[in-house]
Write a structure and sequence with these properties.
By secondary structure, the protein is of the alpha+beta class. 24% of the residues lie in helices and 33% in strands. Strands 6-7-8-3-9-10 form a 6-stranded mixed beta sheet, with helices on both faces. A 5-stranded antiparallel beta sheet has the order 13-12-11-14-21. 35% of the residues are buried.
Length: 357
């Protein structure tokens, strides 16, 4: 196992800047998830750690070594890809053992490692099968087994679950989580799926156009997003954003709607963006004065919950309510805002405003 350190890492493709300078330290045994939409630079960052992409500036350390000019095979890493990359003519056993055989390892040691990995991944019944005889989830487990047998210092996962259906993705997420708990190997995992990121990560790296907008635990990133981009990307449904003007202890929305600010906030007068999570709005109880009225366009039934899509003061928002609340398209319920859970961002830069007095 090893820690991984990135110091001012940049990547340019000619005049195009793909990675703008990422700094982070991944602890020995930590599970880091790099998350963001397509084109944000997350896979490029992973490929630079793997040695599959040359870096333009900065340093990458794996353990105590600077690996900028070290070949991928010599970095003591193992990578699991999105497309499995299995040899179709080889059995499961041969696929898992191939890398060890070309390294000249003894048959006894190969057998021991493959059997241990097969036991961890519950692949013993399939060792003599070819990849075409396996399901997608089983093939992905074989790809992980091939990485495990190498006993690397670092695991790299490049969107390994993207080709699986929804049910298998949930199952494989649990298996990857268990695998990390068993092996304790430093792991760096790339995904565009924020649910996957939240459930797997010790810490998240939220990428935005080649920059790491925020690095922190899932709860830190969810409860204290550093930017509107992070607040809008992490969370399902996404955080709601409403333009407001703050004067004194009040936030003034359009249509003369006024929200009180949380106790202790001290914010200069000006125009800002309020952030409100869908679960931090609720239907006003009988006799309770609502903060705002919601004009519902669509009520989206999800079983246990209903998502009310509508507008507050002309701004599009989503509210999560219990399904038994009984609201439907074109209704107009009153909402109470959990004032203590409001977020405030700079209107121009999107950066979080430090709000306590």
């Amino acid at each position: 196992m090893a820690k991984v350190t990135l110091k001012s890492v940049k990547k340019n493709y000619g005049p195009v800047k793909a990675i703008h300078g990422v700094d982070m330290e991944i602890k020995d045994g930590e599970f880091i998830v790099i998350v963001g939409p397509s084109g944000c630079g997350k896979s490029t960052l992973l490929r630079m750690i793997a040695g599959l992409e040359a870096i333009t500036e900065g340093d990458i350390h794996i353990g105590d070594r600077v690996v900028n000019n070290i070949e991928p095979a010599e970095r003591d890493i193992a990578m699991v890809f999105q497309n499995y990359a299995l040899y179709p003519h080889m059995s499961v056993y041969e696929n898992m053992s191939y890398g060890l055989r070309i390294r000249g390892m003894s048959k006894h040691d190969i057998e021991k490692r493959v059997q241990r990995a097969a036991e961890i991944l519950q692949l013993q019944p399939y060792l003599q099968r070819k990849p075409r005889e396996l399901s997608g989830g089983q093939r992905q487990r074989v790809a992980m087994g091939r990485a495990i047998v190498r006993e690397p210092s670092v695991f790299l996962f490049d969107e390994p679950l993207s080709n699986l259906d929804a049910k298998l993705r949930v199952q494989m997420r649990l298996e990857i989580k268990r695998l990390h708990q068993q092996l304790g190997v430093t792991s760096i995992y790339v995904t565009h799926d924020q649910v996957e990121a939240m459930t797997l990560a010790d810490r998240l790296v939220v990428m935005n156009q080649g920059r790491a907008d925020q690095i922190g635990s899932p709860q830190e990133v969810y409860n204290h997003p550093a930017t509107t981009y992070v607040g809008g990307f992490i969370g399902s449904p996404a955080m709601n954003f409403i333009k407001c003007r703050i004067e004194g202890s009040q936030a003034k929305l359009a249509d003369a709607v006024i929200l009180p600010l949380p106790e202790g906030w001290s914010v200069p007068t000006g125009d800002y963006t309020l952030g409100i999570r869908p679960e931090n709005l609720r239907i006003a109880r009988a006799g309770e004065t609502p903060h705002v009225m919601l004009d519902v366009d669509v009520a989206e039934e999800l079983g246990a919950d209903t998502l009310l899509h509508g507008k507050i003061s002309g701004e599009e928002i989503v509210v999560r309510v219990p399904s038994h609340a009984g609201f439907h398209d074109h209704s107009r319920p009153g909402l109470v805002v959990d004032i203590a859970r409001l977020h405030l961002f700079d209107r121009e830069s999107g950066l979080r405003i430090a709000t306590p007095a």
